[in-house]
Fold these 3 entries.
Entry 1:
Amino acid sequence: MDGVRDLASALGTQRACDALAVPRSSFYLDQLPKQALEPKPRPSPPRALGAQEEQRVLDVLHSERFIDRAPADVVATLVDEGVVLCSERTMYRILEAHGELRERRNQLRHPAYAKPELLATGPNQVWSWDITKLRSPAKWRYYQLYVMLDIFSRYVVGWLLAHVEDADLAEQLIRESCDKQGVAPGQLTIHADRGPAMKSKTVSQLYVDMEITQSHSRPYISDDNPYSEAQFKTAKYRPDYPQRFAGYEHALEHCRKLFPWYNTEHHHSGIAFLTPEVVHHGRAAEVLAARQRKLDAYYAAHPERFVNGPPKVAELSKAVWINPPEDRARVEMAISAPPVRDASPLPAVPRGSSVSTENEGAVATANGVGDRAPGVTLENARVSVSPEEARDSRAATANEHDGSARC
């Protein structure tokens, strides 16, 4: 507007506004004196409470009888006694005017649970486990599938199928899985949700005995155990997954096919489309290098088909997190200086070998696919038993049926 004002003194207001494409009405409005607009005080309606009445309401709300009760409760109690001071909404307005609008009720405050932040830079550093239900032929009856997963390699290190969710079965699965993977004391962190078996005294004592770090999801937080949940989705979205299993043997046979496929054939998008077995046993670099050589050879033969330059294979993540810190500096520091852990590959196991324990259960050490132990399988092989019988017997030996239990 200053330019229009300077030009208007020589050419006139209309020509100056036309020359600078400024509406004359805007120019004239800008010339008006600026008056400070002060908000007008809101008039008090004639039906409002007076100062003494407001103080009486505050005194009642501050009294020992009503100090921890909500306005709605206060109003209802006083009306029952024949005392009417004001409405519930008026009480809220008075509290707000005095800066006291908050939760007044005396109720239990849940503790603030810390978000679990777990880092794995190699196999057998952090495991995640959970229990999912498999539908049985009878309505509202389920088989319980326990699955133990390495979050770095997505390798299923152990699984168990039972009729019930039981802490003793979970303890046996964890112990046998750690033995077969050669986990050293102080090496492993195991993460789980807050289910009865996960929080049981039996499992907690096992963690203490084996020097395993225990981690749990926060209550009512569905994504604190993402790797186990994702593995369950992969398993239950397979085309051969039935709506219901015809019986325990049917479910057992399905799991015996599922987990070898998952570990040795499934190319996982979270691990550069490698199989969990390849990553878990330290052969990721070798496989990725072979892929790159094949891509380089194809590029050399047909460079015109790659407008963005030579193709590159996907890189395997160097670190896998459960809830990475929001502070990027903390993430980089944790990755650059991870805790010292033994992540050496497992020793080779002869094909088809199996070991049975003398306690309730059986352990399979190989499934004839590859030459390394794919993990542990504990199977409740009782086909038709009640939950009470299954709880008493825990896990019957799988070799009652076929001589060995295989992953």
Entry 2:
Amino acid sequence: MSAASRARASEIADGPGHLLAMSDLGRSEIEELLSLTDTMVEVNSRPIPKVPALRGRTMVSLFYEDSTRTRLSFETAARRLSADTMSFSVSASSVNKGESVRDTVETIEAMGIDAIVVRHKSSGVPEQIARWSSAAVINAGDGWHQHPTQALLDSYTIRSHLGSLEGRHIAIVGDIKHSRVARSNIEAFTTLGAEVTLVAPPTLLPPSLEPWPVKVSHDLDAVLPSLDVCYLLRMQQERMTEALVPTLREYSSQFGLTEKRADRMAPGALIMHPGPMNRGVEIAGAVADRPNAVMTEQVANGVAVRMAVLFMLLGSGRYPMRGFPTEDAATADDPGPERARPEDADPATITEPATITDPATITQPTRNTAKDPR
């Protein structure tokens, strides 16, 4: 965790852990989450992909922006851990009557919740909600700022194919300036040892790249042959207030991954995209359907990664991602620096499903074959 993250955390009252930005996680914490994701992938591969690890917990999806993948992924993840879910829709809420974000949060929290997954068009809203709420807060995307679970699932996808990100060359191509995914991925990839090159026209780069240990190129063709991963971003025209490229056709001709360009990539190199894709702009339709284009795998891994995040924050070995003490540490005579970790518990001593610490140890529910011929 960075010094800035520790300073921000100290300003928020003691409470559950939150995941607000990739800077909240150090390398060991990222790797721990990715290792736990392996367990969740195994759970998802079972005939009945559900375990009672978060039975009795409630997660609410608080989305002020449109979403398909992220919202459904979080809700699926919560249900597979047996948590209850609540879904908030701006179009059918009191927001349209002038209700503030704070009043909405306090209203929802009064119903009894354990976690809030929030997406908002304004940067910093999830962190502000963390100050108001006693529930765990997970940032599902705030403005141009951060999208940490996307970075985690992308890191997991690369790790599952290439073994490690250490020393890998990853190019992030496209609208870097307006992309929260780019910001989170840069932090995650470089923390895990990857070499990152940003490829974009000057108008689609942030005004300053000083904090980021990255290289910059304006020539996709020069970068492609050395890449292990080509990570494409769409043009986020909904966030643009001016024309930053002459035309989409010209942008596509210089920075789009065409079939000809994809043929020049090294064998085994991955093509990734956070979605939604604009086929024919940043990626050719035929390229998106190639075997090394792993977009649907990213979506599948997103469920497992978010299961891991929810379990870390809400499971019996609550992990304080923002440096908060666990419940046990907060009440102990000598809390000390130690954090509760999933591996600290002895599964043999577990008697109640709500206290299960390792989801992999949970057996599948028995099926009544007399009523269910499957």
Entry 3:
Amino acid sequence: MAAAAGVGFLFWWRGPNWGEVGHAFASVKWRWVAVAVGLNLLSVLVRAVAWRTVILQAMPPPHPSFPLVFSAFSVGLFANAVLPGRIGELARVAVLSRRLPEQEGAWATLLGTVFAHRVFDLIAAMALIVFVLLTAHIPDWAVTSLIAVVIAGVGLFSVAVLSARQHEFSDLGGLGSLRRLVRLGRHGLGVMREPGQAALACSFQLLGWACQLFAVWTAMRAFHIHKQVPAAGLVLVLMNVATLFPLWPGNNVGLLQAAIAIPLNTYYNVTRSIGVAFGFGLQAIEASVGVGVGLLFLAREGLSVAMLRVMPEATQAEVPEERGVSSGARTEPESARARVS
């Protein structure tokens, strides 16, 4: 909260002309806003399809239907938008595992599918970074973070592929938190052993990011910023850098607007007031889908924000028992661990 207060003070003291910011909102072309909202919704739908593709390769039948997967994915987006940290990744696992009581070790398997899904997300992010590097100018302050993203993407993809080859279940007793988490991730990496399905899931993620890219481009037109697609790519990259580690609820409001407005002013001669207004508008467009749709499915699942705050830790996840070990070998506390009622 102290960091949020500091950003708010800087915006008031050294910020843009707020009268011009208000004028920028007054002249918004709402038809382009509607198109941007639609593209963001399409992006969520496509990325949910990608996650279900991963799930189908990781779990035996019966598989969760797409409406169930989309519901869980939407609740996860909502949690990531309104709560600090990345609690949404655990939230979507918790929501979906509640609907799969007949699946042995559903929590652990779904946790692994989230890991695989995020690996494909990093591949799409790296493709966007390459596109921006070739067509636009990236500010120096963002370069270090982007290098870290590329290294992490290559490393996590390699780990995912190698771990998927060692997919036998094993006893996790006595393992430390980090080793336990890595072992859990293997249970949902079945898609990595199927090149065709992995390529399909990755394609859906790429399509989802493409929808986001053009959502940013149409939002720019709504605020009378008539620049080419590479400028929208730069904005999308900087958005993700600014929200990589949410420091306070609201996906770093203030920091995000500065990260967008300053480069647009420096490289594309967009006035800072219009850039800040566009930053607020773009964040509102993103939130209208993540928060709006997420709230609907949160209510549908009978959950509340307070329940999202107490999601179990990843290292408490239920793990499929070792092959050859009877179900009676597990104690009652172990079988009940990490379930959300």
